[in-house]
Design a protein that fits this description.
5 strands, 5-stranded mixed β-sheet, alpha/beta
């Protein structure tokens, strides 16, 4: 059973990201403020849900939430500031789009760059503990999947509709065979060290 909030007397937003461990594509984050009486038995950490269930829950979350927003950081930005900072920046971009502005943030994970003027609490595996973080994980995951599915139509050799940019064997083999795209993260180890890769 997911907890509805940590701070009962505060307007609280849950935040989570998707795509941090990928070799290609932007990192996405979502921030969600749910009403205190929100209840949905099916809501859970997006990784514990099927793709069908994630997409079924997305319109429910968007309809019932007090506010929700998506933040995006590009592969070029990831290469400039590193993936950890990019994940935090994506969350910041989502938070800044929320109306009304939250009074407290629940962050999935154990680290976060503080958002100016808003207190936060980091929660390890928070997407399996708090409803607002679980909702954010579903939005971040589904919107990023939509983005990777769209990129797959332009670069079908990399099978992004299946692997979503994660380092599967097939994805690495496509990089070895066809090289990198403008959407690959150049700062990541795209191939094992024993194989050379020219940019």
């Amino acid at each position: 059973m997911l907890s509805p909030y940590l701070k009962k007397d505060r307007l609280e937003a849950g935040c989570d990201e998707a795509g941090r461990g990928c070799l290609a594509g932007a990192v996405y984050a979502a921030a969600v403020i749910l009403p205190p009486d929100f209840h949905c038995e099916a809501l859970n950490d997006s990784k514990q849900l099927s793709e069908k269930n994630r997409y079924a829950l997305r319109p429910l979350i968007e309809r019932e939430a007090i506010a929700w927003a998506i933040g995006i950081v590009t592969p070029e930005e990831i290469d400039q500031i590193n993936i950890l900072n990019a994940s935090f920046l994506a969350m910041h971009r989502a938070i800044e789009r929320l109306q009304p502005c939250p009074e407290h943030l629940l962050i999935d994970g154990n680290r976060f760059n503080p958002y100016p003027g808003i207190a936060h609490t980091t929660i390890v595996k928070g997407d399996g503990k708090y409803a607002s973080i679980a909702a954010a994980s579903i939005l971040a995951k589904t919107y990023r999947d939509d983005y990777m599915n769209d990129l797959d139509k332009r670069y079908p050799a990399y099978l992004w509709a299946k692997n979503k940019g994660y380092p599967t064997q097939a994805h690495r083999e496509a990089i070895r065979q066809y090289g990198v795209t403008p959407y690959h993260r150049r700062s990541f180890t795209l191939l094992p060290q024993q194989l050379s890769l020219d940019f």
